[in-house]
Each structure stands twice: as structure tokens, then as C-alpha cells.
Specification:
about 300 residues; Beta-Lactamase; five-stranded antiparallel beta sheet
Length: about 300
Amino acid sequence: MSIRQKLILLPVAVALLVMILMGSGMLVSERRVLDIIHDRDLDTAQAWLDSSINRTHEVALAQAEVIASLPVVQEAVAAGDDMALERLFGPGFDHMKEAAGVVQMQFHLPPATSLIRIHKLEKRGDDLSAFRQTVVDANTTGVSLSGLETGRAGIGARGVAVIRHAGKPVGTVEVGLDIGVSFLDGLAARSGNHFEFYLMPEGDIATFDAADTGDHRLGATFEGGPLLTPAELAALTQTEALDRDIEIDGVPYAMRADVVRDYSGQVAGVITVLRPIDAYAGIRGELMKTAGIAALIALVLGTGIGAVT
């Protein structure tokens, strides 16, 4: 090979080396960019879900406080007059359920005795202290509060407002809003994400089968079977959130499964958030296009330099 040929090939070889290095660097950068976007999208989806749940039990508390402020309610609870409360709220409860999403409404006497359930009028007078910490705390401290809690009607976003009569606390009123499938359907419609909810059973709550020690899938916003195994659900109660990518009906999703804790800090369930990631293919294509153009420019420049030489 002549010196001239070597001089021509040297810039081309350098250009090829630069092209390879640039391509490798761009591929690594692409992976990092997509990982950042992937994790950011999951974090955003999880934060939005958490905020939506918190907002729901805050709304429940606001509704309960309105009811607790009514003089006729204060007088009825002070007198322990469950029939007066039934006459006030029983006929209109179905409308409250449809218009305001109220699925549970209950009045209590201290420390945690059910005076009347408006959502289940035949059930009243039972002691709730074994599993309704929100009711116990509100009646004990005289402070209204809210949070997620599981009761005989299942899990709900509950607001418990203190009722006062003649300046003294005489009981509480509770409003419960749904955070089940209909709640998740609403979130899915607004966000474009999918959700799945597993409810952890409570052995000391009468409506749960004591023989059922497994985890219970309450529902999902997509068709198909559970995404988590019993072993994964059990592990989630002890570890950090579980992230992975999955496909449903050919559509790729980034999935995060994390626990939902109740008012007492106990694991009440697990919710999976599924964020569509099909748009990532477009981002990857743009990054690859940019890498290809940069590599081509390097090759053309190297070849041009070789030709001039």
C-alpha cells in the first residue's frame, strides 16, 4: 500500500472509529435518557395516585364536618336518638350515594359504639373499638380526622368528624367514600393509566372469611388476570415497591406495585399502577436518528479529508 493510500485511509479509519464510539455513546445515552423518563413517569403516576387517595378522604372529612355542624344532628346524637337520625338521613341516602359518592355514613357514641349506620339501617349498637381506630381516636381526642380504614363494609376513605352539643363532644359522624373499582375507573379515565387493587384480608372483621388467608384482588381497570403472584404480594408488605415492564394485549406498560397503608399505618392493600410506554419507541427512534446523522457526518468529513489529502 502506497503512502498516499495510507494517507487517504487513515482519516477514513479515524472517522469509522469516531462513528463507532459516537454510536456506542449515543446508545448508552439513549438507554439512560429512557430510564430517566421511565422512572420519572412512574414516580409521577404514583404521586398522582397517592394525592388522589389523600384528596378523597379529605373530601370525606369535609362532608362529615358539614353534617356534624347541623344543630338537629347535634341534638339527636346528644340524646342518643338513632330514630331521629334515621328520619333525617335514611330517605335521602341513595341520592347522597349517587350524587356525592357516599357509600358509608355512620354515627357513633364514645368511645366507639355504632349509634346507627345510615347505609345499613338494620345494623346498630355494636362495638367498633377492636378495628375502627379512627372512631376511637376522634372520640378520645375530640379532634376530627380522616384516613383509609377497613370496616365491616370493606375499605374506604373515611372522614370522622366530632359532634358537639352545648360545647361538649357527644359523638362522631363518619362519611366513607369508595376507593374500590369505581374509584380506580375514574382515575384511569382521567390519567390514561391502568390500576389494579388487592385488598389484604382482616381476620377479625366479620365480613371476611376467616379461612381465607390469601390476598384478595378487589378489581382492575383492564381485562385479564392478576399481575402479581401471592409470593410477590407477601413480599411487598416487607419490601420496597416492585417495578417492571409488562404487556397487556400487545401494549407495553411500566408497572409499579406498592402497598396502601391505612390510618393506623398497617398494610391495607396493594395497588399497581400501569403507565403506557408505547411512546418510548418514538423517543428511541428520534435518538437513533440523531445518532445516525452524527455518525454519517463524521464519516463524510473523514472521507472528505482523506480525499483532499
